[in-house]
Amino acid sequence: MSFIDDIKQKARNNIKTIVLPEATDIRVLEAARKVTDEGFAKVVLLGNREELKNIASNFSIEDIEVINPQESDKLETYIQTLFELRQAKGMTLEKARETLKNNIYFGTMMIKMGDADGLVSGSICSTSDTLRPALQIVKTAPNTKLVSSFFVMQVPNCEYGDNGLFLFADCGLNVNPNADELSEIAISTATTWLNLFGTEPRVAMLSYSTLGSAPDVEGMNLKVREATNLVREKVPNLPIEGEIQLDAAIVPQVASKKAPDSNVAGKANILIFPDLNAGNIGYKLVQRFAHAEAYGPVTQGIAKPVNDLSRGCSSDDIVGVVAITAVQAQ
User: Model-level pTM?
Assistant: First the structure.
């Protein structure tokens, strides 16, 4: 059984409602059909039912809830609430009404008002279009200073990590995090691992150096070292090592030579990259060269889960992200 099958089973234990605002995309409709058939979440499509039925001409969506935002009996309540939430930022009732013509904003208000538990978008729109409403309306989770993202990576026939299962962060959102931001990414990702999988997170703070083995260049090693120390101060019991090279982080034979006293080296299952360049390149290398499944970028740190899709996603990719979102919402 793959990790995504495990996630789906966990989602079935406490069914959540996930809103899909880009319902005019056939991939989204196909995903909604699959999620409904598999029974691990309830999905809500935003759009005109007759239009969506025409798009989904080869399968039925009759048993899937469809909400036309502009005909919703909750629209006026949403408009008033959005006005009150954003009044200090210049929001007027007229602007709120116009804003909620956007399906992603409407879906985000559904989450804010408790009418849905999570949102998945991005097959059509940009990352910023998906996340901006969430940051404006839902905001960050309690005790969270930074919203970040991660990828779930499952590498076939792999002895490293947890039988080839890893979380990579941040590969999609924070461009060049400072030491404190990097520490927050590490802590959030460790919490995500616990929530998704329920086993021990083991965090590697990646660099081109292992525990001072290479000279520092422009503070790059220092940043990772400081971030590691900050994590140890904030969460003393979290297994973490850094700065550490990738091979020392996941290969026991290398770890025994480069970091023999570490309780993480050689068995890390969470890889924290020093910047977006490294993270984005890293996950794509593993995805393409090792034929890994890559689910993400999934956000963490928002008060309720809102997740972005790649615009090149398949319907199965959307199904996987809906499953992860449903478990996050638990």
Answer: 0.85
